[in-house]
């Protein structure tokens, strides 16, 4: 081995250099990438009939999210000529792969989507406006599909590029046994009440909040919950949708960051939060090692199974009593590839998911989230006394109060990994100031938008 | 193509080396060389496609601003400028250099110590057992090692349990989540993984040392320390060179252990170039900057490894 590593004859070096030179000249002539200037016509005729010809829909879905598969199975049961070929990956892997997979010749018909603006810019996503008209999706509440619209490189307005397989809501799960132990008889109605409960838990020897902050910043959940309350949530939404002039450097974000810092110093988060990942957090919460956990309804079915009757849910309380609830809520976005071989069938499936009674039931029981769709269709009910029933109710309440906002983590492709996560880790460890935090997040945002 | 590549230069060499070569002789030589090239052709093609082409493409990408899909924009050396001026990226490169201490110096130093202790028991069943145990960390996938160690080092893990058991509960912490201890903790995992490799290489090297040298040293009145410094160490120059080369590359190009145990956190405390290249290219879609960082990393590896190669090659004992 020593011989191998130490001896590198001159002849071989010469050969290597010449091979390198050949490679250089072969590749260096043209710039990488291709110009995919828009070739899509949004007014192209679309079919709303499935027909009877055999079709195989290629689907790229998220591991650990069984809803997509369950819906696909039911769809094939109802339409025997349609088969699904499902490829699954972790969400972070999809985020990384989506552009390349969609640009390839084997582009999937239906794909779980991360942020959409870049994909639209690169012309990889199918414009769903023709289907919107053809299927009459204007009967859906407009706010439901708002996050899925892209126009002029901003989100929130413009053409429709995705649909949700379920629409998730986030809030606070709580351990009922621990809650009664510290004297909490009902969910808090104001932020101040919530903070009182945190203090009571701490003095009572109960871990107030179980929240992960490794890999990705789970403490961004409570942070945004506070930010939504401390200012105008439209400001938050504008920033996420990349509206010109929007900034993170606002009094609301600063106050939220100061509150998180205060909570961290008071020991409301676990000491090892920066070493705790998502699965660890859920595990600890299930074991009864924390009073509150900021999370979303995708965990409802799971929590009902692991701690039946012992878990409750509430929307994050308002700053002043009787205020409007605001919560992060996002569709589990699926889109259709620009290069899809069966776009009509894919759109048919997406419409079916929102309107078919059985599909809507599966969305609730398997996905744990509201099925969305036209407002006149009934929402399937969940079993009573489950946290699933509570999250469904919260979802409807939020819809009625029109309080849904997207996640700040979705503002740009890199903001979560490049700024929010490392800076939040620093903040709770006392290595970053609240002022420094909001400035760092905004700086990364501007850096990414300027590219 | 193979025969053309092979025969032309060899034929010319022949003419110069042998004044009167017969035609048959020359063509036999050419054919032999051509067949030789044919044998290495598959490997050469794989090497060109999977090593050289990506290398060249990386160099090319590093000169562009490109998101991996759309049209790239020529930016010259701007990406390199960013690598050398961005304080975060400099910190990340610094982290890799700190890791050299843990991944390289500690395993080699400890490896020397362990190897001189187990040198005498390299034969027989016991020797095999010792070698196997020492080499085990190398066999375990790095991902598994990373997961196991992150359990050991977690706030309720075995390390902290042990500390609490001996009354050192005050020191206990989430080692991988603490700003001060995260990088050294990652380093310890690396040291554990690489210690076995170094020990095995060094034990093998020691077994090749002529016992007469030790005998001579002992006759001259050398103790174990003197013996080690005068006989063992100089004889192991090449093995130590290999150990340092392999481990320094492992430190600078580390990815798996860091990705699994800390994901680069907390903050940027344990982010290393390998992880950042991956993030820049695949999650932030800055293929150009990622490529520039990759090129800088390659140069850094060469700058560390080539001098070691030269030193360890030196005069043979």
Question: Can you walk me through this structure?
Answer:
The complex is a heterodimer of chains A (451) and B (317). The N terminus of chain A is likely disordered. The radius of gyration of chain A is 24 Å and the shape is globular. Chain A is of the alpha/beta class and 451 residues long. Chain B has 317 residues and is mostly helical. Chain B folds into two domains: 60 residues, no CATH class; 232 residues, MetI-like fold, CATH 1.10.3720.10. Chain B contains 14 helices and two strands, in the order H-H-E-E-H-H-H-H-H-H-H-H-H-H-H-H. In chain B, strands 1-2 form a two-stranded antiparallel sheet. In chain B, strand 1 and strand 2 form a beta hairpin. In chain B, helix 5 packs antiparallel against helix 8. The longest helix of chain B is centred in the first third of the chain and has 39 residues. The N terminus of chain B is likely disordered. Chains A and B meet through helix 1, helix 2, helix 4 and helix 18 of A and helix 2, strand 1, strand 2, helix 11 and helix 13 of B. Chain A: It holds the Pfam family SBP_bac_1. Chain A: Belongs to the bacterial solute-binding protein 1 family. Chain A: Keywords: Signal, Transport. Chain A: Its main location: other.
């Amino acid at each position: 081995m020593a011989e191998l590593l130490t001896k590198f004859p001159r002849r071989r070096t010469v050969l290597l250099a010449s091979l390198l030179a050949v490679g250089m000249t072969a590749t260096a002539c043209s710039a990488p990438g291709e110009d995919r200037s828009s070739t899509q016509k949004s007014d192209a005729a679309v079919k709303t009939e499935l027909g009877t010809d055999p079709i195989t829909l290629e689907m790229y879905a998220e591991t650990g999210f069984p809803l997509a598969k369950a819906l696909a199975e039911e769809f094939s049961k109802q339409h025997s000529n349609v088969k699904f070929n499902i490829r699954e990956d972790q969400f972070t892997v999809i985020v990384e792969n989506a552009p390349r997979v969609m640009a390839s010749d084997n582009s999937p018909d239906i794909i779980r989507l991360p942020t959409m603006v870049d994909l639209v810019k690169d012309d990889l996503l199918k414009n769903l406006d023709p289907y919107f008209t053809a299927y009459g999706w204007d009967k859906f509440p407009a706010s439901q599909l708002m996050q899925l619209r892209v126009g002029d490189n901003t989100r929130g307005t413009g053409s429709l590029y995705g649909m949700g397989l379920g629409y998730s809501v986030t809030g606070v799960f709580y351990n009922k046994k621990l809650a009664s132990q510290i004297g909490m008889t009902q969910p808090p109605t104001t932020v101040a009440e919530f903070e009182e409960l945190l203090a009571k838990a701490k003095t009572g020897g109960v871990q107030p909040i179980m929240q992960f902050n490794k890999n990705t910043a789970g403490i961004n959940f409570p942070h945004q919950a506070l930010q939504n309350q401390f200012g105008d949530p439209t400001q938050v939404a504008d920033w996420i949708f990349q509206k010109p002039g929007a900034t993170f450097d606002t009094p609301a974000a600063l106050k939220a960051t100061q509150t998180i810092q205060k909570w961290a110093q008071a020991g409301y988060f676990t000491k090892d939060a920066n070493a705790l990942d998502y699965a660890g957090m859920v595990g600890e919460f299930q074991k009864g090692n924390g009073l509150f956990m900021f999370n979303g309804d995708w965990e409802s079915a799971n929590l009902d199974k692991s701690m039946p009757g012992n878990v409750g849910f509430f929307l994050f309380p308002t700053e002043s009593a009787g205020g409007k609830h605001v919560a992060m809520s996002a569709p589990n976005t699926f889109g259709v590839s620009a290069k899809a071989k069966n776009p009509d069938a894919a759109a048919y499936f997406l419409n079916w998911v929102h309107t078919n009674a059985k599909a809507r039931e599966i969305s609730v029981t398997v996905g744990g989230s509201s099925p969305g769709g036209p407002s006149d269709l009934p929402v399937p009910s969940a079993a009573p006394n489950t946290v699933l029933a509570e999250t469904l109710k919260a979802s409807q309440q939020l819809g009625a109060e029109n309080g849904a906002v997207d996640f700040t983590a979705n503002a740009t492709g890199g903001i979560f990994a490049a700024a929010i996560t490392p800076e939040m880790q620093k903040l709770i460890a006392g290595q970053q100031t609240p002022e420094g935090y909001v400035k760092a997040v905004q700086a990364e945002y501007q850096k990414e938008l300027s590219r | 193509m193979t025969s053309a590549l092979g025969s032309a230069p060899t034929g010319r060499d022949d003419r110069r080396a042998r004044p009167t070569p017969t035609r048959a002789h020359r063509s036999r030589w050419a054919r032999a060389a051509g067949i030789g090239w044919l044998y290495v052709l598959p490997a050469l093609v794989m090497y060109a496609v999977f090593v050289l082409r990506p290398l060249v493409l990386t160099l090319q990408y590093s000169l562009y601003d490109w998101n991996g899909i759309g049209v790239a924009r020529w930016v010259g050396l701007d990406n390199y400028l960013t690598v050398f001026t961005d304080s975060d990226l400099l910190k990340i490169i610094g982290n890799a250099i700190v890791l050299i201490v843990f991944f390289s110096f500690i395993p080699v130093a400890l490896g020397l110590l362990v190897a001189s202790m187990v040198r005498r028991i390299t034969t027989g069943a016991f020797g095999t057992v010792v070698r196997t145990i020492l080499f085990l960390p190398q066999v375990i996938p790095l991902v598994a090692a990373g997961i196991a160690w992150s359990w050991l080092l977690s706030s309720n893990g075995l390390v902290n349990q042990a500390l609490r058991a001996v009354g050192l509960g005050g020191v206990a912490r989430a080692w991988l989540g603490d700003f001060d201890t995260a990088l050294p903790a990652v380093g310890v995992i690396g040291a554990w993984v690489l210690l076995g490799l170094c020990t095995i290489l060094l034990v093998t090297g020691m077994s090749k040392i002529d016992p007469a040298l030790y005998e001579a040293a002992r006759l001259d009145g050398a103790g174990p320390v003197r013996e080690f410094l005068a006989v063992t160490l100089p004889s192991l120059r090449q093995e130590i060179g290999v150990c340092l080369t392999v481990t320094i590359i492992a430190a600078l190009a580390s990815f798996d252990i860091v990705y699994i145990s800390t994901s680069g956190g907390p903050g940027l405390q344990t982010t290393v170039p390998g992880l950042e290249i991956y993030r820049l290219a695949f999650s932030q879609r800055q293929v150009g900057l990622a490529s520039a960082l990759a090129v800088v990393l390659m140069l850094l590896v060469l700058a560390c490894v080539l001098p070691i190669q030269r030193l360890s090659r030196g005069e043979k004992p």
